[in-house]
Amino acid sequence: MKRILKKLNQLLFRRFSIPEVEAHCDAPCGVYDPASARIAAEAVLQLTQKILDLKPPASNDVAAQHAYFNTLTRYITIKEQQAEIAKKEILILWTDYFKADHLKEFPNLHELVWKATKLCSAVKREVSIQHAQELLDVIRQIHDIFWKTKGREVPWYLAS
């Protein structure tokens, strides 16, 4: 069966002229948007604040301690998941959308992406409002560059 399909394929290619095509992106350009990285980074910032605001209960209240550790564990888990989502979304933009021409036009783009992905790792390792805010700030810069490459002005906004 495989040989028959291969021969059929060869016959079709010989019989019909098929033009070579190129694409700027790995997928249609309309699917890329830095908003998903912003949403994830904003969640990291909010969860970091929630972790810092969480007060441990009295040491003799076992039920309250269990509830505290359950809540703390959930906040940490979700914060790490959101940091990983932000990193993934930034890397998708970097590897699938941004091209060499963008680097020529925005020479700091490589540094911004590198910094953003390193900050995603940092906010998973630690509980730092400063680094969570820096992550959001760097993603804003990537957002601005992304939309400039499309010739559009899309406002930056936060959900909270």
Give a structural overview.
This protein is an all-alpha fold. The chain has a domain at about 35-55 and about 60-150: Four Helix Bundle (Hemerythrin (Met), subunit A). It has six helices and no strands. It has helices at about 1-15, 35-55, 60-95, 100-105, 110-125, 130-150. The chain is elongated.
Give the fraction of residues assigned to helices: over 70%
- The succession of helices and strands, N to C, reads HHHHHH
Question: What CATH first level of the domain at 33-55 and 62-149 would be assigned?
Answer: Mainly Alpha
Indicate the proportion of strand residues. Answer: under 5%
Number of helices: 6
Global Rg: 23 Å
In short:
The protein has 160 residues and is mainly α.
Outline the secondary-structure elements:
Elements: H1 2-15, H2 35-53, H3 62-97, H4 100-105, H5 109-125, H6 129-149
Offer a few descriptive terms.
single chain; 71% helix; 160 residues; mainly alpha; Four Helix Bundle (Hemerythrin (Met), subunit A); elongated
